[in-house]
Design a protein that fits this description.
By secondary structure, this protein is mostly beta strands. The protein is built from three helices and 16 strands.
Length: 269
Amino acid sequence: MQKLCSALLVLFMGLQASAQCNDINTAFRAGEVVKYHAYYNWGFIWLNAGEVSFSVDKANSNNQAAYQLKAHGATYSSYDILFKVRDTFETTVDTLHLEPFEFRRITNEGSYHANYHYQFDREQRQIHASIQKEKEAKRDTILPWKACSFDLLTMVYKARNIDYSQYKVDEKIPISMVVDGEIHDIYIRYLGKETIKNRDGRKFNCLKFSPLLVEGTIFKSGEDMTVWVSDDANRIPIIVEAKILIGSVKAVFVDALNTRYPIAAEITK
């Protein structure tokens, strides 16, 4: 159970190609809500342990139209007695290119608590990061904001605007993320198209990827994650699976409200 929901949020870290970081958003709109069930694998048993939701709302930053992107992960109350998780990710981005203004992450996992706050300085091209972890001194740092580097949540939505038709099977796509006060340059591998069946029996035409993971407290290093994204104009993640240090986790699409386009990837016949 430990770090389950936060791990599932990290699973959606995105598939950003540097050449496309200034693409205009055409994949989603304000009012969209996407929901997932979070599963943890223990031996031969898959436990439906919680829920993860992503939402988009209208906002304003420095008198500029913006989106407030939010992701929230929580264990079910029946699991709280074992290990309670309430994790929230929030970021504010401009509505055109989705470049971030500010990012916050609030982590509450059992007795562990942490807060992350990034402010993106567009004039100086710097990231002002403030991190407060359980039983550690507050850490403030300034990072160079290199082109096409984004926080985790912004990366989720940037990825939905990439034209994947230009990539070949097995081709690597570079990505750059700000995680835990550091910038990581990694990649994802495009694995082609595949039709998958959800746990509720629904079928979707999908694009398939395998990201390179950075070894840490949750994940092993290597390509031990697989992501299936709807092969339509919405580019919604449908299933995400990953091995972690103990067991594995899975996020499974449940529902989407107020999408910009119909979910044409779902096979209804």
